[in-house]
Design goal:
single chain, 286 residues, four-stranded mixed β-sheet, two-stranded parallel ribbon, 48% helix, 15% strand
Amino acid sequence: MPASAGLCDYDTVRRTIEFISTEYRHQPSLAAIAGALGSDEEALSAVFKRWSGLTPKAFLQAVTIDHARRLLGEGATLFDAAFEVGMSGPSRLHDLFVKHEALSPGAYKAKGEGIALSYGFHPTPFGLSLVIATERGLAGLAFAEPGVAGEAEALDDMRRRWPKASFRRDQDATAPLAARIFEPSNWRADRPLRVVMIGTDFEIRVWEALLDIPVGEASTYSTVAERIGAPKAARAVGAAVGRNPISFVVPCHRVVGKSGALTGYHWGITRKRAMLGWECGLLARD
C-alpha cells in the first residue's frame, strides 16, 4: 500500500475511533458509524480491511474501552480478544525484533552535546511520523499533526529532550528506518532493527522492559515496575513510559492502567487505540 494511501486510511480510522470512543456504550452499527463519518458501509469496511486486516466490527471491539477493561480484568490478552470477535487465529506470530543499546549516562546528562542526529518526516499507518537517527541506529520516533506547524511542534518536542545535540534534516537517512518499522515483513530476527536509547539509567531500564511486552499483549505500570525490581515505583515507571522517545518500536502503547483503562499517551490516546487494534490485525494475518 502506498504511503500516501496509509495516511488517508489513518485519517478515516482516527475519526472512527474518536466517534466510537464517545458512543461505544451504544455499540453503534456499521451503518451508524459510516453515516456519522459521511461514508458508506462498503467504503468503511474496505478501509479497515486494507489498513488493519480486520473487519470494522473486529477492530472496534478490540479497541473499545470497556472491552479492554473486561479482558484485562479476566487476565486475557489482546490475542484472546481476536478469537472472541470471531477471527480464526494466526498462522504465525509477528513481533518487532530490536537490538538495542544505551548511550552513556553522561551523554544524557550533557543534554545530547556531541551527538549528531538526523531527522525526517515520513507517512505511516498512524499518521505522519518524525524519525530521528544516529549513526548507530534509531533514536527517536514521534508523530506530528499534518502541516508545517505540526511538524515544527513535533521537532521542538524532540529537541527539548536533547537540547545540545545537533539536528540535521536528512530524509534519505531516515526513510529506510521508517520503511522497516512499519512493514511487518521486515521484522526479522536475523536483521534486527538497531535502536539507541538516550535517557537516565531508570528510564532505560523501563524502556528495556517495554521491549519484552509481545505484540498483542498488554501490561500495567505496576507489572513493569515489578519487572525492573522496583515494585513500589509504579508512578515513576509511568513517568518514564511517558518520556519514551521511540514510540511504537519501544511499545509504550502496550502499557495500560491497573483497571485495564487505556490511559494517556504522549502522542494521543486515539493513536494508542489505533496501534493496539492494528496489532490485533497482525495476529490474524496469514
